[in-house]
Amino acid sequence: MIKAAGQTSLHDKGQPIQITVISGKGGTGKTSIAGCFAALSAPSGDAVFADCDVDAANLALILRPTLKETHGFTASKKARIDPQRCTGCGECARACRSEAITGRDGSFAVDHLLCEGCGICSHVCPTGAVAMEDATSGRWFISDTPYGPLVHARLSPGEENSGKLVTVVRNKAKEIAESQGRNILIIDGPPGIGCPVIASLAGVSCALVVAEPTLSGIHDMERVLEVCRHFGVPATVCINRFDLHEQSSRDIEEFCDRNGIEVVGRIPFDRAVTEAMVRGLPVVECSDGEASKKIRRIWGRVLEIASGAGQPTAAR
Amino acid sequence: MILSIASGKGGTGKTTVATNLALTLSGSARVQLVDADVEEPNAHIFLKPAFMETEQVTVPVPEIDEDRCTRCGKCAKVCAFNAIAVIKDHVLVFPELCHGCGGCSLLCPERAVVERPRKIGVVEAGVSCGIEFVHGKLNPGEAFAPPVTRAVKKRVRQDGIVIVDAPPGTSCPAVEAVRGSDFCLLVTEPTPFGLSDLELAVEMLEKLGIPAAVIINRSDIGDEKVDRYCEEKGIPVVGRIPFDRKVAEAYARGLTAVLTFPEWREVYASLGDRVLNLARAARPSRAPAGDERR
After folding, report:
1. Are A184 and A147 in contact (CB under 8 A)?
2. Are B113 and B60 in contact (CB under 8 A)?
3. Nearest residue to A200 (alpha-carbon basis) of A220, A174, A180, A179
4. What is the pTM of this model?
5. Distances from the Cα of A13 to the Cαs of A17, A100, A124, A178, A307, in angstroms?
6. Do residue B200 and residue A157 have CB atoms under 8 angstroms apart?
């Protein structure tokens, strides 16, 4: 049975409440919803925001940020072979399990996109021709927004997304929250179930899974809920664009009910969401339509659950 | 011909295009559909293949032979991922950090490190509607997708038409999926999020030296900036598909457009023709990766 949100309150004094918005499936509306949460938290001035989808970061596009700081990020080292010292023996290529080293005309070279930085090549090279060098694989940023501080990042395309940059973004956001006495950290998470998602989930007060009412969406939601359960992260679900297929929405509700997960809301399909995005705003800032109303209610409920103040209705 | 379908942004319609294209092309060619989104594979929902083979995917994880180990600590020193620690008299291994590089085992002076396989996922292969089908599934709770993606890619055929459905993003899972393809069709939506992620995807393909074309899905919801970007970059836009509620509902039920609505067969047939013509005409340019030339 998947733990219902609120059964353990992870909010220690002095620690911010952390809410991560994830989905499993891409394109369900995580960033649109996380951006609304940011706007809705603004009146209290009590929140910091982290865009942990470092692979394809979009939250900044609807929060009107002003960039304050830029930092380089080095995930790991990459091997570089000095052609002057290379004798072409090929020991490096034989030892490399990433198939990152190939030889031509008696000398060998490293493909940086394949190199994982393990360094075996540098150990087995008999002439010391291989050096392991720091490689900048992305950047992270701190920005001000009208709603509060935002930490975000850009992983260079093609780079390894092991979750390290996600962790940097989260830790920095938490640091800002603590230093500014802000009690809420809103995390826009990545799609999928791999390392970046796990790094976005570790130790959060509550995960909100944004579900798409389709067979694909349900399949992916179940997998990401399994990850939440695996890591002991309390999870809730909201159904986005629920009216596109009401049968699937009901199926999601039944699944959640059977597994003790609260469905905190259903948002109808509303073109105002895309119109707002095109204007660079969260939909709650410029529409009072159905989607906006529903998202407001969802925020209220998620905040209650994450702060341990509200008991989830699906608890057994 | 290996054609990958990628996007940058999630939810733009990669699997929709991949499955509909596979069904359309299978009428006149030998087609293999490779779902390389091993974190959240979806193509099987639409093609409903009869699976005939399952392969366990494992990664090698070190195990220390305590009798041979002299606690010299060389394994911990060479491990670039902090997956081994020697603390007092104990050698601790953290399998979830291990990248399977084999350095500890190779370099242990006492040959005290053996590698044991650890299961992280599966590859399943089968057939559907005359299409060969293969996908991978990373076990929920596991962190690293690429070893499963590589196991899936090993089954890519070298003849006929192969369509590789890639995951969202532009980092290693997506790179592993599109690597080696002759051409990439990028599926996008005409919104600020779609454009931002499309730019990243184009950058990824430029690094890999894979030529591309774009298809704009839900083309009537958004603005014209994606079109302008493609024009500036000289990337051909091979199709614009408006939002269609009945197709979206069919998709929600796990049904493909081409098998449910006959008028869509022509849409995907012309799309397929355009893409294959571009792919055959393209001369892939391979930029050197990093600072080294291959």
Report:
1. no
2. no
3. A174
4. 0.92
5. 10, 48, 51, 11, 11
6. yes
H helical segments located in chain A: 30-41, 91-95, 120-124, 164-179, 195-201, 215-230, 246-258, 272-279, 283-286, 290-306
pLDDT in tens, chain A (316 residues): 333 443 333 445 568 999 999 999 999 999 999 999 999 999 999 999 999 999 999 999 999 999 999 999 998 899 999 999 999 999 999 999 988 999 877 789 999 888 989 999 999 999 999 999 999 999 999 999 999 999 999 999 988 887 999 999 999 999 999 999 999 999 999 999 999 999 999 999 999 999 999 999 999 999 999 999 999 999 999 999 999 999 999 999 999 999 999 999 999 999 999 999 999 999 999 999 999 999 999 999 999 999 986 555 543 3
Classify residue A141 as exposed, middle or buried by CB count within 10 Å of its CB (0-12, 13-18, 19+): buried
The residues in A 23-42 lying below 8 A from B, measured between CB atoms, are 23-28, 31
Positive/negative CA dihedral, B181, B184, B185, B189: positive
Query: What Å distances lie between residue B72 and B90, B114, B280, CA to CA?
Result: 11, 16, 57
Q: Is the four-CA dihedral B216, B219, B221, B225 of positive or negative sign?
A: positive
Written as six digits, the tokens of B99 are 């990248």
Q: Which of B12, B204, B251 sits opposite A214 (nearest CB)?
A: B251
Length of chain A: 316
Give chain A positions within 8 Å (CB) of B147: none
> How long, in residues, is chain B?
294
The C-alpha atoms of residue A311 and residue A260 are separated, in whole angstroms, by: 12
Q: What is the CA radius of gyration of chain A?
A: 22
